[in-house]
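Encode chain A's predicted structure.
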Amino acid sequence: MERIQFHHDVIIVGTGAAGLFCALNLPEDAKVLMITKDKLENSDSYLAQGGICCMLGPEDFDSYFEDTMRAGHYENDPAAVENMLLGSQHVIHGLLDLGVDFDRDADGKLSFTREGGHSRYRILHHQDITGKEIVTKLIERVQERKNIVTREYVEMVDLLTEEGRCYGIVARDEEGQEELLSAGAVVLATGGLGGLFDHSTNFPHITGDGLAIALRHGVELRNIAYIQIHPTSLYSREPGRKFLISEAVRGEGAKLINHQGQRFTDELKPRDVVAAAIKAEMERQGTDHVFLSFADIPREVILSHFPNIYERCLEEGYDITREPVPVTPAQHYLMGGIGTDTQGKTSMERLYAIGETACNGVHGANRLASNSLLESLVFAERAALAIAQELKERVRAPGPSVTPQPSLVWDPESLEGSNRELVLSEIRKQGKDFYEQWRNI
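Encoded structure for chain A:
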């Protein structure tokens, strides 16, 4: 099938919080294309419930830094953590300027909550649909920008490279038409890999495509087996995406209990500790779930703070104001990914990665609750500033004189299976213990 070629200044693959915020921070005279292989809003950022962290002030730096490092088992990059913390208030003010609405107290001040691993109340939220609020407002602002074009149901199938530089991507639209899309810079914001697991809180179409393509081109990947298991997804025997029950409910007093009604762990420990405790309790009792009790949370707090969780559980037959709900761990987040510096630059020139698909070292071996949205936005903005400078220095050079070609040509039937096996193989290679422990969730 004949290919069509288009040129852009920047191509962003993915329309989650990171991709959208990056686009909004690029120069308004830059020709920007954003693509996603599903609907614009169908990113894991949209599903985020709990909130987004914000350093409370200079006096909170040491505490927040230590909380993040401790949760990450001190495998975090300290410089990246520092960048995230110091950039947090700027990002929050940026979101407010873009129209994002965070919950406030009776005096009109921003309301903060706390989740597992945090020593202070420093998490901003919009009820229990914080991700939806942020992503919806970012999409609205992107669609107002004349220099940004968004396209749904367009899938990246390869990179265009020449002499170790990235000059664009090969994309396939909904009709199967292949396009060579050249650009001064390509940003991978393709999300995680939850679609590779049977039980995940992620959208099923998010299957690590960016990781697979990076592997084929020899782009550095880091800690690909550092995959976070969320302790509390709503238990269901039905296949498909699992409904996450936010860690914020445990921050407000919800308790984990076994089938005898006994509490068996400290619910406010970091996620990996709580998930392991649940798995051990299930194995000890020979069950495939435990329970989460909301008995210690006042009914009015449940209805005002967690209306989405209340309604969804009600749909499944559970009234959380009256009874505990069955929960089980599920794959949730990727701490590793395509290796980057703190400006989103990868090991390939002109190729950037941001958000969950990137690994800049912030999260270490385990992500601290509600750091994901903040990390995505802080480093998306830093990447945008770096790209803007590079475009300026190159005076929008059109690329090489010889049209770059994709490394391989993939038919639609084989692409998904090949990507899946390539990424899972890398996970097994880098993290056999993790794979053996959690492969059956």
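The first helix runs from residue 17 to 24.
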